[in-house]
Amino acid sequence: MNNISIFGTSSDSGKSTLTFVIGKILQEHGFKVAPFKAQNVSNNSKVCEDGSEIGIAQYFQAEVLDVEPTYHMNPVLLKIEANGRSQIIVDGKVLKTTTPRQYYKEIDALKPIVKKNFEHLEKEYDIIVAEGAGSPVELNLMDKDLANTYVANEFNTKIILVADIEKGGVFASIYGTYALLSDKLKKNVIGVVVNKFRGDLTLFEEGISIIEKRFNLPVLGVVPYIPFNLGFEDSASLMNYSQTSKNPSLNIAVIQFPKMSNYNDIEPLIANDEVYVDFINGACNLESYDLLIMPGTKSTISDLKWLKQTGLFESIKKRKKAIYGICGGYQMMFENIIDEENIENDELEKESGFGFIKGDIIFEEKKVLKNTSYDMFGLTLKGFEIHNGVSKNQQLFYENENIKGSFVHGIFDNDNFTNVYFKSINTHYKNFDFKEYKKNKIKSFVDGISERLDINRILASVS
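Now predict its structure.
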């Protein structure tokens, strides 16, 4: 069997979604399929059952394919911190924190790790669908490209190009990407998917002819723009969300920290017609919102300072309506945050928090990584932890009057919590079944894209 690489002609072209869609199509035709991304750069990650940490996109792809998420699917993950540093996670565990320049100097040492994990998946699955990263033809970085050309060359994968027509310049991006590939990789390109098309698809019939006849590239499909609102990988995809709330019961403000992480905590709210979500990145009247959420952040102290610089800190501190803190946002609710070990900062840092909760947060070198069920707020809730800051009082969660929060991510995925909490804020709020919504949304999305793809050509390429 042949494995498949999904190359984008640009960032945010739709590689992540095409990866699970094509994986699902292959699975429905009887193949055992796994997602893979050699190297991911994202502050949006999730903890697997074995306590390893991987990018949210690969975790979500595994969920769609109903296979067990594992670090083998994303062996290298970079999480961007303050001051130009990145935390390097290898095989699901933190290796070190370094600069991009130093990381690229040592990139060759990661190639055997990528190879080992890919080969591990090959033993368990019929086909691996390997998502690329950014563009595969960044000429100054070709020898340092783990996710695109290294995997495609090392494992001789078939290649599908994905082009975002919404960005403009789709012909140039397709032709330029293909032309700059090596001769070996050109031979393995089975075709291109034109993604995010808006309007009358018949208007692009001449465009298909141009790509196929002038570029000599088969067009595997022209995919219409379909709002999805699930599996957000980064801030770019997050800001492409769409909402249909017409008469929401709750207006929710989410603080958009400069180093905001784990955006997927907000997915159940964006999906909910009873809720309107507004991302806040500057001073505003917070009292007009029913609920304020302080989400996770990869640089807690840095983002706490940002709150103070923008004036949001004082507005939040004076707020009398509901506030919920998640992980980094929760840590800010304590009296002080102290980083004596330089875990997230270049030097010793101590910053005063909101003081809603007595006690301090201390950053420790060993990251807490858990994926389990928790007894919180009088309920049993599924979620995960991913943090270096710990409470000296071992306070996993907190609630008092208008203040709630916890270290646990994924809290709003639990309908039993969300529905009770939101009704306590507004009695007119109706129940929402996020689990059912998610299942139906994935199916309709996959079905909608599948109708536009040349499935026979894709199937022929893998056998």
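The radius of gyration is 23 Å.
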